[in-house]
Design brief:
Blueprint: H1 3-10, H2 12-17, E1 25-32, E2 37-43, E3 46-51, E4 59-63, H3 65-72, H4 78-83, E5 87-91, H5 93-98, H6 100-103
Parallel strand pairs: 1-4
Antiparallel strand pairs: 1-2, 2-3, 4-5
């Protein structure tokens, strides 16, 4: 497992403190295919991250470790990864769009 992805997930609460997440109430599952998974729960400025997948996630985002690494390095765009099938989204896609507030 890439330390870069682990670091990104661990830094989500700190990123949230610097972002305007008013109106965002969502739960995401990040899944590395064949690897680890995390749940990220956002309730406006309160953000919690934990290992594993909660049963009540609004949106699941899954990809290979290589794809996540390319996204984090900005070598691959989210839209092109999604359209090429490298990044998979399931659940509420409008919730997926809100995630941009956190990662941009």
């Amino acid at each position: 497992m890439s330390g870069e992805l682990e670091s990104f997930i661990a830094e989500i609460p700190a990123r949230a403190a610097k972002s305007d997440l008013s109106g965002v109430r969502a739960t995401y599952a990040f899944v590395v295919e064949g690897g680890k998974a995390w749940t990220v729960r956002i309730n406006e400025q309160e953000v919690a991250v934990r290992d594993g997948i909660d049963a009540d996630v609004d949106c699941t985002i899954s990809a290979s470790e290589e794809t996540f690494a390319s996204l984090l390095d900005h070598k691959l765009g989210v839209m092109s990864a999604y359209l090429s099938g490298k990044l998979k989204l399931s659940g509420d896609l409008s919730v997926a769009m809100q995630l941009n507030k956190l990662i941009s």
